[in-house]
């Protein structure tokens, strides 16, 4: 209870601190309902949606050399659908691939909660979902956290949203101009479009994928002169329903669709809620859905090519733009006979992440040794804009991670219980529990919050397809214990102190035989999670330092914030901290630098 009260108190403090000075743009009171179905051009001619914009109030009076920032997000796209990531040979993505081939391709990038609304909340706030409050579909971001659009707007950027918001429109913040899709339809669809003094609610003819691109182009053309812009281009594609543009309809009808080699159900050590609650359809169903998926994604490829051509040839600003391309989440498509996007398996959590920005990446690079997460999206944008991260964001700039300025050796995955009741067929109810997991480059440990112990452990090096759960393998019990501790530690770091309802589920067909890839999982170290901000790269000289008096100590919170620095003997640091009354009771990380010795330890203050 104390921890929960602390979290609430912190949120209230952040509400008054972080939003101070930010431009609070909301939907104006005047919304004009348009009865006719219009084209974008007709909407402009009638309501001036592309009227030239003068510099905004926050614009700099001097020349602004900061990059334009373009964030392209697709919906439900797997990381392995693109040519640069080993996509199908018949599915060509030269325009999207260009962003990676002329910049950086982050090969290990993940969503910490792979669902539409939580992922978008993480984009806007730079925080884990349990922190920003939007933990499922549909929920809203807590009011007190600033959005990246607000921060950029307050720091001189002209801000535009084109596409899917993912939240109630009353929560829209920080955008000078916007076109927001408010219906599930692809063609035609209804939008809210800003006009400067009012908002029109109107059905626009044509496919949403084209409308989103065309609106973005129009707003860039009419942007305030001399002012950098931020564009959030949020495609609905390739989300269901699979209704492609006419140009891509049926183009893959004669091509066999991908079907995973491991499209069989787990038979041992699997969570009981996997089947039938999250079970995929048969190969015929999968074949049909994949065709629609690729048809929609082909439309995104086409408009991305046209958009890049506009930036390069017409606007002449391509190299002055930081362009990020990603997805809100992945999607299981019959791997292990599972479907969906909330389970912590690789196909669900792994995302495409391409960045084209010549200032950061003058030569193309494939980044394998960095684990990026979607909590890093907003801090990366702050870094490019030259804005210090003083907003409580929990991620790091991908540039800083790539250059080794900070390191990440693990990340936390979270999902909250999903209970869907069918009033007509109650036996079809979907009951997926809350889940927490920790992933490192080597293993993934998953804990499901069932009323019976339900755990999974996958060896990602020897079993990257996650076919064998090692949690009961006798040779991996030290590894399992380590990862249990690591999960508890990383949850403390990020303030994830509670879960929702414990459901009735268990591990089925338990097997205790040795099925692992190795009889020697290797050495197991201390499981204290050290935040990326804490430099432990020189963790050498592990002899005793208890009696040494030449130790400079820096004490960090579990979130990486330094709270004490001084010259204290290691054996007495806890007493010194408590005597001086500097820190409240809790768990801290202390880094001791004693001559040529460096140690990192956990300190518990009672």
Task: Give the SSE map.
Layout lengths: L1 H17 L12 E8 L1 H8 L20 E7 L19 H8 L2 E3 L2 E2 L5 H10 L3 H4 L15 H7 L3 E6 L13 E5 L7 E6 L4 E6 L3 H14 L7 E6 L35 E2 L11 H32 L6 E7 L4 E2 L5 E2 L5 H4 L3 E4 L8 E3 L4 E2 L3 H9 L12 H5 L8 E5 L2 E3 L9 E3 L2 E5 L3 E6 L5 E6 L17 H17 L13 E2 L42 E7 L4 E6 L5 H7 L6 E9 L2 E9 L1
Parallel strand pairs: 1-8, 2-9, 2-11, 3-15, 4-16, 5-6, 5-9
Antiparallel strand pairs: 3-14, 6-7, 7-8, 10-23, 11-14, 12-13, 17-20, 18-19, 20-21, 21-22, 24-25, 24-26, 26-27
Helix pairs in contact: 7-8
CATH superfamily of the largest domain: Alkaline Phosphatase, subunit A
Radius of gyration: 25 Å
Largest sheet: 11 strands, mixed
Query: Roughly what percent helix?
Result: 10-25%
Shape: globular
Number of strands: 27
Number of helices: 13
The CATH architecture category of the largest domain equals 3-Layer(aba) Sandwich
> What's the mean pLDDT score?
87
CATH topology call of the largest domain: Alkaline Phosphatase, subunit A
Sequence of strands across the biggest β-sheet = 1-8-7-6-5-9-2-11-14-3-15
End-to-end distance, in Å?
A: 17 Å
* CATH class value of the largest domain: Alpha Beta
Low-confidence stretches: 1-21, 424-428, 534-543
Strand content: 15-25%
- Our count of domains comes out at 3
Structural class by SSE content: alpha/beta
Characterize the structure shown.
The chain has 606 residues and is an alpha/beta fold. It folds into three domains: 22-265 and 322-405, Alkaline Phosphatase, subunit A; 413-508, Arylsulfatase, C-terminal domain (2-Layer Sandwich); 551-605, no CATH class. It has helices at residues 2-18, 40-47, 94-101, 116-125, 129-132, 148-154, 208-221, 283-314, 346-349, 377-385, 398-402, 477-493, 573-579, and strands spanning 31-38, 68-74, 104-106, 109-110, 158-163, 177-181, 189-194, 199-204, 229-234, 270-271, 321-327, 332-333, 339-340, 353-356, 365-367, 372-373, 411-415, 418-420, 430-432, 435-439, 443-448, 454-459, 507-508, 551-557, 562-567, 586-594, 597-605. The strands form seven sheets. It has an eleven-stranded mixed beta sheet with strand order 1-8-7-6-5-9-2-11-14-3-15, sandwiched between helices. Strands 17-20-21-22 form a four-stranded antiparallel beta sheet, with helices on one face. It has a four-stranded antiparallel beta sheet with strand order 25-24-26-27, with helices on one face. Mean pLDDT is 87; it is low at 1-21, 424-428 and 534-543.
